[in-house]
Amino acid sequence: MRRNVPYHFFIAFRYLKSRKRHKGISLNTVISVGGVAVGVMALLVVLSVMSGFHDDLQRKILGVNAHIIVLSYRGAITDYKEVLEKVSGEKDVVSASPFVLGQVMSSSGKRAHGVFLRGIDPSLEANTTEIAKYIKDGKLDDLKSKDSIPGIVIGKELASSLGVLRNDIINIISPVGEIGPMGMLPKVKQFRVAAIFEVGMFEYDSNLVLTELSYAQDFFGMGNSVTGIELKIKDVDRAKEIRERVQKTLAFPYYGRDWMQMHKNLFSALKLEKLAMFVILVLIILVASFNIVGTLIMNVIEKSREIAILKAMGATKKGIMAIFMLQGLVIGLAGTLIGIAGGYILGYMFNNVIRLPADVYYLSHLPIKMKLIDFIAVSLSALTISFLATIYPAWQAAKLNPVEPLRYE
After folding, report:
1. Predicted confidence (pLDDT) at residue 22 exceeds the cutoff of 50
2. Which of 95, 104, 278, 326 is the most buried (most CB within 10 A)?
3. Each residue of 178-228: pLDDT tens digit?
4. Is 146 helix (H, G, I), strand (E, B) or coil?
5. Where are the beta strands (DSSP E) in 41-126?
6. Is 150 helix (H, G, I), strand (E, B) or coil?
7. Beta-sheet pairing, 68-72 with 183-184
8. What is the pLDDT of residues 147-156, one digit of tens each?
9. What is the pLDDT of residue 229?
10. d(CA 59, CA 47)
11. CB within 8 A of 156, min separation 6: which ones?
12. Three-state secondary-structure class, residue 286
């Protein structure tokens, strides 16, 4: 069995051991392996955390907003029921619902805050977005007026800012109202806080309020028109393709916008940040590779006599290079495997064991998502850097003159 295995492997593994008998692996080898392992582990944990935050952010955004919205170049959509029927029958569209959107001011007592008022149909909205599952106090169906005052759903941060609780009354003020003797007068209407939601994103928890569609139409003076149609699709990653198909079906003056378009800057920044962190943390592995270079150079110096003997016995330059390259690759491979195991264990602990104060971070744990592609990319990067680190020491060993070490023997 051993006769079929090249001698390079036996010598390479032997050089990884301590010079002293029965001492096991040398300290330099342990340090080199540890450096690669730490770099791989750090890189995997950071990439997994960033992937987790990306998915958590996407989940929250798509929980409040639709996957695709249909708008009109003419402003409001007057025949929205016909449009609703057309898009509902479109392939890959799960559900659709109309909405009205406008920017207003909310106030209670002496406190005021600018918000977006969205009018929805509660029965259709429950199938189109996941806003109902974020409601902490009350229900979405409570929007329907129980008295003369219409209901409204507000975010937790807005409720705290205005100092109101469920069933309290707040004022909604629109700067666009009726024209009087003194010019345009703001329109003010009272709403009852029917429910309070908490998404976990300050932008939505403080700047978004919901009311029943007919109340919003009446408040903005839109009659039977709506701002647009929300669509929920089967596969969010195919939003662009489905949006183009829906847009082609409806034709002018209608057009669509998908969630990728509406939040392009945010998700592009996250991708760029992840790439930057990958490049920066690869430098840790690069620094660890200097340990491999140092270990191999020390081995070349210490084993110069053995190298000379091997050359005298007929070993080629390629054979000598192979010995030291194999030695470096074994170090890189061992460090990579240990780093992968450590990164997976640490990611699992962050995700399931280590808890964070939810009232401070809005998260009870770090959102970790370990992707196979990240593990493959990190492993290949570590092994490539480890291999490149072996070239110079191996080349130095290969060009060693066998006469010099044996001159005084």
Report:
1. no
2. 104
3. 665 665 667 889 999 999 998 888 888 889 999 999 899 988 888 889 999
4. coil
5. 68-72, 93-108, 111-120
6. coil
7. unpaired
8. 778 999 999 9
9. 93
10. 18
11. 136, 196, 197, 198, 205
12. helix
Q: Quick check: bond before 253 cis, omega within 30?
A: yes
Kindly give the pairing relationship between strand 187-197 and strand 151-155. Answer: parallel
DSSP secondary structure string for all residues of 344-366 = HHHHHHHHHT----HHHHS-SS-
Q: Could you tell me the pTM of the whole model?
A: 0.73
122: closest CA among 93, 146, 147, 98? 98
Q: Which of 104-108, 114-118, 303-307 has the lowest average pLDDT?
A: 303-307
Locate tokens 């700047």: which residue?
207
Q: Cα separation of 42 and 234, whole Å? A: 35
Residues 194 and 166: beta-carbon distance below 8 Å: yes
Residue 195 corresponds to which tokens in the numbers above? Answer: 């429910």
* CA within 13 Å, CB half, 392: 12
Looking at the DSSP bridge assignments, the partners of residue 212 are: 120
CB neighbour burial string for 130-160, b if at least 16 within 10 angstroms, e if fewer:
bbbebbebbebebbebeeeebbbbbbbbbbe
Strand-strand pairing, 93-108 and 228-233: antiparallel
Helices (H), ranges, 170-263: 202-207, 213-220, 239-250, 259-262
Burial class (CB in 10 A: 0-12, 13-18, 19+), 265: exposed
The DSSP bridge pattern shows strands 183-184 and 228-233 to be unpaired
What are the phi and psi torsion angles at 192 (to 5°)? -100, 130
